[in-house]
Amino acid sequence: MKNKLLNAQVTAAVQAAALRKRLNGVHEEIRTRGDRGDGPIPFVIIVVASIVGALLVAGGLAALYAKANGKLGDIDLGG
User: Is 17 helix (H, G, I), strand (E, B) or coil?
Assistant: First the structure.
């Protein structure tokens, strides 16, 4: 039991050190490159609009399928 707990603690410490190193590298890169200019608000607007569009298309297809559900059995696909 002690060995597993010690392994978990060492793994957590190593992961925390790796994360700290990566974050420091990212902060340094941001300082050298500067701001890219793209903000989070336009990104959120684009993502929400994409999701709403996909839901509208899926809802329209579902409504069409429900409307034509009884009529689809009579179609001959030539098979």
Answer: helix
Going from the C-alpha of 2 to that of each of 5, 7, 8, 9, 52, the distances in angstroms are 5, 8, 10, 10, 52
The single residue listed with the structure tokens 């790796």 is 18
Fill in the amino acid letter for 74: D
For residue 66, pLDDT over 90 is answered with no
Could you give the CA distance from residue 25 to residue 3 in angstroms, rounded to a whole number? Answer: 33
Within its chain, how far is the Cα of 52 from the centroid?
Answer: 15
C-alpha pair distances (Å), 74 with each of 61, 63, 65, 71 = 19, 19, 14, 6
Tens digit of each residue's pLDDT (9 = 90 or more) over 21-39: 999 998 898 888 876 666 7
pTM: 0.43
